[in-house]
Amino acid sequence: MRIFWFVAGIFLAANVAAEAAKPTAILLLAHGGSAQWNQEVERVRQTLTKAGYANEVAFGMADVSAMDRALAKLEALRPKPKQVVCVPLLVNSRSELYEHFEYVLGKRPKPSDVFINAVKEAVHDEARYPKNQHKAHHHNAIDSRRVATKLPLKLSPALDDHPHVARILWDRAKTVSRNPDKETVILISHGPYTDAMDILWMQNADQVARQLKELGGFAEVKAFNLRDDSAREIREKKAKEIRSFVSQAQRRGQKILVLPHLVATNGIEKRLTETLGGLFYKMSRQALLPHPLIAQWVLSQVKNNE
How would you class 281 by CB atoms within 10 Å of its CB: exposed for 0-12, middle for 13-18, buried for 19 or more? Predict the structure, then answer.
């Protein structure tokens, strides 16, 4: 009798586990950063696992080899997932990198030539990138391959203007804010490669700025792109725009708060120091990750695609 109940217990446990296994798996697409930042991505994965989702992460800028390895692990699961929702840990869907993700995952007919050419040029422009993870991830083997999996794939939007973004930025602002109604906040992103894409990017960024202004009660919130990966003249033009805006706000008696509107900072402090040298401002040193709302955002994207 004991043997019967033991076997029955194993059978029941197996059925419960099978029922608990969700038919949708998750692939996180992460640019990558420092070892500490990459560990934060792993913590996001832990939350997804606790929610019942099989998941993997592919680090790199649309690195097909990394994505193939991650998808192969998901394809080997039993029961096999019925679909994989690919969630890019990116600030904005209006970017050449997101377009290339679309191509690699079979959602776009042609690769982003702008992205491929820009990354290839970056390999020969060492001076543009400091010796850190940001540069290293520009050196991925970028090509026109697509992932090889047979699993059905869906691609979610990036963070864009999801309400969680403004809430995270508000938490960051609280660490440096004292009198919101007398403070001007500037949100700093890297931005896309081209001017045409920059216009589209800013539609999302401006919406985030409006949400943050309402949440925090700030005098003004303005979004900017550094355009780090664009031509020198464009980078210099953007730097002048940011510096001019900050100078004017200070002449009006406003205190300046700087918030990285980024998933990972990757040495942006140096660029901002160069841009805002001689001006007084307070800056949060944290990007959007780590924050518990990032995992909640990922789950919301998955549920939207189930």
Answer: middle
C-alpha 98/C-alpha 100 separation (Å) is: 5
d(CA 233, CA 94): 22
Alpha-carbon span 132 to 137, nearest angstrom: 9
- Number of Cβ within a 10 Å radius of residue 303: 11
Q: How far apart are CA 176 and CA 5, in angstroms?
A: 61
pTM for the model stands at 0.88
pLDDT tens digits for 20-73? Answer: 479 999 999 998 888 899 999 999 999 999 999 999 999 998 999 999 999 999
Q: Give the whole-angstrom CA distance, residue 273 versus residue 242.
A: 12
What is the amino acid identity at position 284? Answer: S
**In this predicted structure, which of 133-137, 153-157, 255-259 has the lowest mean pLDDT?**
133-137
Residue 137, Ramachandran bin (φ over 0: left; ψ between -120 and 50: alpha; else beta):
alpha
Other Cβ atoms closer than 10 A to 139? 14
Please identify, in words, the CATH class of the domain defined by 2-159+292-304: alpha beta
Task: Write out the H or E segment, with its range, that includes residue 5.
Answer: helix 2-20
Two domains, one topology: 2-159+292-304 and 163-283 = yes
| Residue pair 137/61 in contact by the 8 Å Cβ criterion | yes
Specify the DSSP class assigned to residue 185.
E
Fold of 163-283: Rossmann fold (3.40.50)
Grouping H, G, I as helix, E, B as strand and the rest as coil, residue 287 is: coil
**So where are the chain's domains?**
2-159+292-304, 163-283
